[in-house]
Amino acid sequence: MIGTVSDTKTIASARGLGKRFGDFAALDGIDFSLQEKKIYGLLGRNGAGKTTLMQIVTGQEFPTSGAVEVFGQAPHENARVLTDVCFVKESQKYPDDFKVRHVLASARHLLPHWNEELAQTLMEDFDLPSCRKVKKLSRGMTSALGVTVGLASRAPLTLFDEPYLGLDAVARHLFYDRLLADYAEHPRTVVLSTHLIDEVSDLIEHVILIDKGRIVLDEDADALRGGAVVVSGLASLVAAFTSNKTVLHRESLGSHERATVQTTLSDTERDRAVDEGLQFEPLSLQQLVVRSTTAAGTTTRKEDAR
Ligand SMILES: Nc1ncnc2c1ncn2[C@@H]1O[C@H](COP(=O)(O)OP(=O)(O)OP(=O)(O)O)[C@@H](O)[C@H]1O
């Protein structure tokens, strides 16, 4: 086992996980673990490696290096593992003549934690026609069907790969609300890959941020929010304040400067800095992710063939 014996809450873990397509490294030797009963935000720019990571965790792709374990075993073609996993992705293919009700019937058959009552409630919420062929659904309805399957699966490990594509704002918020409500009663591990960070920032308990195939942040969301500040003021004061700190971003505004700094400030430190003339602004999760990705962007991906 990759997880340690005392680490009983780890349900999935990867060590040195790499995936190459030719000499291009989509994943570049990453380590991470997923704990039970937690909602993860899997964040990163286009092409960062999020889908590749989820495909490997769900046994749909092989890594080219390193190893991954889910519920203590390798996931690939492992029925014992995969019955407890539900992966919702936009590119999900169904047989040509499949209707919505056939999708639900298959999910009911394949997923042992399936909850039919929740599935029916979501069908009504999203106004999904059970007798319509899946290939005749609109893009938003296709996403809503995926979301319905993912939530009603109540799988101990449920992964949503950008589940909102095509969903309008009302439907997206319905999804977030239903996810939170059902999660509160039936906690499980949820991985949500998304670009709409502000929308999900209250939902996410832990952030895994990937950039160019590497993990650049892997932290609890609350710790992240409290672990960075935006400080501004006279350039000389900002320079003194940031001298021994990690600066994620810096912008000059004439004689003034504004810097995003990775630091945890005590009340005393903050009060002293304010007395000296510095100002502080809160940082949203989205801003932090953008800053962290930009800061990490100075490194290059190994043998980047693009
Ligand atoms: N089968 C493949 N052959 C070649 N390159 C691939 C293949 N699959 C993925 N890639 C490349 O690997 C990188 C990571 O792709 P991936 O789909 O995992 O990114 P992502 O983070 O999910 O992106 P997005 O947010 O745009 O969906 C991309 O550069 C992509 O082009």
TrEMBL record:
<dbReference type="InterPro" id="IPR003439">
    <property type="entry name" value="ABC_transporter-like_ATP-bd"/>
</dbReference>
<keyword id="KW-0067">ATP-binding</keyword>
<keyword id="KW-0547">Nucleotide-binding</keyword>
<dbReference type="GO" id="GO:0005524">
    <property type="term" value="F:ATP binding"/>
</dbReference>
<keyword id="KW-0813">Transport</keyword>
<dbReference type="InterPro" id="IPR051782">
    <property type="entry name" value="ABC_Transporter_VariousFunc"/>
</dbReference>
<protein>
    <submittedName>
        <fullName>ABC transporter ATP-binding protein</fullName>
    </submittedName>
</protein>
<dbReference type="Pfam" id="PF00005">
    <property type="entry name" value="ABC_tran"/>
</dbReference>
<dbReference type="InterPro" id="IPR003593">
    <property type="entry name" value="AAA+_ATPase"/>
</dbReference>
<dbReference type="InterPro" id="IPR027417">
    <property type="entry name" value="P-loop_NTPase"/>
</dbReference>
<feature type="domain" description="ABC transporter">
    <location>
        <begin position="12"/>
        <end position="237"/>
    </location>
</feature>
